[in-house]
């Protein structure tokens, strides 16, 4: 038996999730940096970071929109870094830094209620400001505390893919 809270449970999609997803797609379509991954999941690239925008059910008739940017992977969480992130959280207009132990990842996240999406300009300003902060701090954190930015991880993946693909292609030629 799979419980509703199990990661294997299918996500509940209420009418608010569908309506919010449609509204987001319309608002985000004006951005050349926007890409739809699947229904309810979108990404925007800003500099060396990628902002994931996802829609989730909240209560029976509402949805929430999560903005999440993975800033640095493979960083060791130590007291100076933790204190710096907590101090920054107290100063930010919106959004907060967090640490995910699985993968030693620093993320930046913010949650909006579906009813906060009525003004397209305000929403796009929020996404833009969020992305700029994420893009700025991924480089700062990696330079000071180590780890890899999302851009570095993507580039490493492309190089590995090309290298692996090249070796397979070379093998076929011999």
Present the secondary structure layout.
Elements lengths: L14 H14 L5 E5 L2 E6 L2 E10 L3 E12 L5 H13 L4 E5 L4 E9 L6 H26 L2 E2 H24 L1
Antiparallel strand pairs: 1-2, 2-3, 3-4, 4-6, 4-7, 5-6
3D structure, described in words:
This protein has 174 residues and is of the alpha+beta class. It contains four helices and seven strands. The chain has helices spanning 15-28, 79-91, 120-145, 150-173; strands spanning 34-38, 41-46, 49-58, 62-73, 96-100, 105-113, 148-149. Strands 1, 2, 3, 4, 5, 6 and 7 form a seven-stranded antiparallel beta sheet that branches. Strand 5 (96-100) and strand 6 (105-113) form a beta hairpin. It is globular, with a radius of gyration of 19 Å. It starts with 14 loop residues before the first helix and ends with a helix.
